[in-house]
Amino acid sequence: MQKLTSAMMEQWSIQSLCLHALCGIVEGTATNNESSSILHHQRNEFLSTVMRSFLLASEIIQALSAATTTAGSSSAENGSSDMNGNKMLMIATKENQSNIISDVVTYALRTIHSSCDENVELLTSLLSMKGASGDVFQCIISSISNTSLPALARIHCCAIVILSRKIIASSSSVVKTVEELQQLLVTQVLPLLSQFTLYSTDIASALYARVKETHEKLLQEKTDASMEKEIMHMVDKRKESARLIARRQKVMKKEQKEQKEKEKMEAESAVTDNSMDAEGADAEAQEIAEKEAVAAAAAEEMEDQYDKAINAWKNACLPLKLSVEVIANMCVSGDNDPYSAGSGKGGLDDDMAWDSDEEERHFDEQHQQHQGIEMSKEDEAFFNQVADSGVLDRVLAVFGGILLSLMNSKNDAEVQSIHPLAVEDLVEVVEKCSICLGNAACNLPAWKKNESDVTSIWHDFMQCLKAVKCDPSSNTPNIPFAAIASILSTMGAFLRFRTALVKCVNEQDLNLILSFVTMETTATPKDDNSKMQNADMTAIEDLQKDAIGMLGILCSEPHPDEVNNKICNSFLTTLHRHQSTTTTVMNEILISLMEMYSSDEGDPNNHEQVFKSRDVLGSFQKIIPMFKRKIREGEKMDGISFDDIELWRETAVNASRFVKYKKGQ
After folding, report:
1. Calculated CA dihedral for residues 480, 485, 486, 489, nearest 10 degrees
2. Looking at 104-158, which runs of residues are DSSP E strands?
3. In whole angstroms, what is the distance from residue 489 CA to residue 350 CA?
4. 470 strand-pairing partners
5. Quick one: how many helices (H) and strands (E) in the chain?
6. What is the per-residue DSSP string for 342-411?
7. Pick from 513, 521, 425: nearest CA to 470
């Protein structure tokens, strides 16, 4: 029976690996609607294969759960039933240790979720698909409330139901009307997403503290194992006393760990007896070899504990990541949205949702800047339900809770610092929350519509920014640059779509925003080999862009020359640091300056006096050639998109025209 169980689990393991690979292909290639895609020509076979894996694995997990529940109360009535029960319990035990069958369910649903995104044909086929137990879509709906399934799988089911919102009325025999779907979303989908959109500081602290503790112990065990190996090597090479070497190594270890006792240990080492009988050398060598084996075993055991700590952290963090991502996609208007929803991957695409630059260009074309995107009645009704459900308040709470944890870990000496792996995950959640909140501000006017609500949120964001402190020695902040960029991006979204906030911005707020425009960093350029430094440079660029965008919104409203002069000075200061300022930031500043000083004479926003006193025209004439040179350099660099190059070129042309226009006045 043991062999049979192992063989079964091996088959599930193979299926899990295949689904994982297939999911990677779907997520990693833009094949959804291409005529050569397997999702186009063989979509029925694709769906039936993946859904068959999902349905079978789900049934087995359900059966294993039932077998485990009834195992304690069941009695051996006959040999056959007892044998089957033991078999199920053996499979359940292996599943609890490996989660292989659970992974099959998760990867199958993740693959369906990713492949159906923006693929109406595939989604339509899924909605009309029949299985052995009836409608496949009904199985997906039922899985949302199935607590025996993995959390990630249930969230992916929610995402699939949300994707079907646009076409479900005409394609599904399970849910025939929009009203039925809305009811399903309100009673099952939103509550489940709310359930997993939760950040507990105490639980998170315990989990990432365990990761840090086991990592430190693992490093110590590896150091000990390495030391034992070094002793054996020295014994073999120099024929020196193993005991003497061990003692010397022990002294070296103490010196590294307790610097205050260095002189005392050296004194004790100096009087160490170096004599040793030659006939005992072999025995001592064997003793050292045994210690080496023990140290290696201890390191292996600690590595296992470290892996368990990481898995515990990931199991708590991944559902939160995915739920926030699904909510972010859910808050995107379908037909009129220029940056369609993401694909349900582990990370959000840059164009999936709220992006300050794209939003600004799009909404400038609207007849009123802050009016937002027009949406269907169905979208409006659904978004009102989302706003009333409280799920977005959960996202906002997660956003603030994680930022507070990141700040406390650096500012409070009594709070344990967070392991870098956990920091990376927390920052990713913060970035997803920022996108989600930006989507909500854009598309859900019913959420946080009261002036008192948005003012309170704005003040909280400002308090976060004021709490950001830089280490003078390294000029790095107490929270990651990406987290700061997420705060500014969210503030920019609220400032644009909650117009009452414009009048809430005081002088202190303005100065704080300006400080991020002129931010200087000692980080290395983007072509440096360090992944972390490249990520920091990208985040700094993003936060500068967001700060510039916020100032652009503020400058679109009537304001005094004193304010305009302060903003202009910050823009020109950053612009003239062209060696360290990225081309993207220079591009944003040039656009903002042209908008600031393009008003006709007599317009309340005409600040010609500031324009002349700051010699903005002279700055343009000096900067444009440098800007064009940076564009040419960018054309030769990898990682810069054609769209970015075209945008920069357009700005350079417009800047040259702006100079001619101002000269002709």
Report:
1. 170
2. 130-131, 134-135
3. 13
4. 477
5. 28, 4
6. --S-SS--TTSS--HHHHHHHHTTSSSTTS-----HHHHHHHHHHHHHTHHHHHHHHHHHHHHHHHHHHH
7. 521
Helix or strand run (H / E) with residue 471: strand 470-471
Structural tokens at position 227? 């030391």
Coil/strand/helix, residue 508: helix
Beta carbons of 576 and 614 less than 8 angstroms apart:
no
Contact 510, 419 (CB under 8 A): no
Query: Given 3-state DSSP classes, what are the helix, strand and coil percentages for the chain, each rounded to the nearest 5?
Result: 75, 0, 25
The token duo for 165 is 């919102």
Nearest-angstrom CA–CA distance, 325 and 343: 10
- Structural contact between residues 597 and 621, judged by C-beta atoms closer than 8 angstroms: no
pTM reported for the whole predicted model: 0.81
133 contact partners, CB below 8 Å, separation of at least 6: 55, 139
Cβ–Cβ < 8 Å for 576, 618? no
Q: Which helix (H) or strand (E) holds 477?
A: strand 476-477
Taking the C-alpha atoms of residue 205 and residue 192, their distance in angstroms, rounded to an integer, is 24
Cβ neighbourhood burial of 360 (10 Å; 0-12, 13-18, 19+)? middle
Q: How confident is the model at residue 415 (pLDDT cuts 50, 70, 90)?
A: low
Q: Where would I find the beta strands (DSSP E) of 14-123?
A: none
Identify the pLDDT of residue 71: 59
Can you tell me which residue has the tokens 């529940």? 69
Query: Are 247 and 288 spatial neighbours (Cβ–Cβ below 8 Å)?
Result: no
Q: Which DSSP string do the residues of 577-588 spell out, in sequence order? A: -TTTS-HHHHHH
Alpha carbons within 13 A on the beta-carbon side of 269: 19
C-alpha 342/C-alpha 117 separation (Å) is 7
Q: Which residues pair with 131 in a beta bridge?
A: 134
In angstroms, what CA-CA distances link 457 with 437, 449, 465, 588? 11, 11, 13, 26
Question: End-to-end alpha-carbon separation of the chain, Å?
Answer: 91
Q: Is the dihedral of CA 31, 34, 38, 42 positive or negative?
A: positive
Sign of CA dihedral 206, 209, 215, 220: negative
Residue pLDDT, tens place only, 113-163:
988 887 888 888 888 888 766 788 889 999 999 999 999 999 999 999 998
Tracing tokens 């859904």 back to the chain, one arrives at 51
Residue with tokens 């290639």: 29
Q: Angle between the 451-466 and 507-517 helix axes, to the nearest 10 degrees?
A: 50
What amino acid occupies position 292?
E
> Does the pLDDT of residue 343 top 50, yes or no?
no
- Find residue 476's DSSP bridge partners: 471
Q: From CA 17, how far away is CA 275, in angstroms rounded?
A: 59
Measured between alpha carbons, how far is 553 from 549 in angstroms, rounded to an integer? Answer: 6
DSSP string across 502-547: GGG--HHHHHHHHHHHT----PPPTTSS-HHHHHHHHHHHHHHHHH
Q: Which amino acid, residue 521?
A: T
Rg (CA), the chain: 31
Closest CA to 659 of 609, 621, 608, 604: 621
Determine how β-strand 130-131 pairs with β-strand 470-471: unpaired
How many percent of the chain have pLDDT more than 70?
A: 73
What average pLDDT does this structure show over 392-400?
96
Instruction: Give Cα separations from 215 to 469, 569, 605 (angstroms).
Output: 28, 48, 58
User: Residues of 374-383 as b/e, b for ≥16 C-beta within 10 angstroms?
Assistant: ebeebbbebb
Please tell me whether residue 476 adopts helix, strand or coil conformation.
strand
Residue with token string 């990376």: 424
The structure tokens listed for 351 are 């164009």
**Six-digit token string for 253:** 């270890």
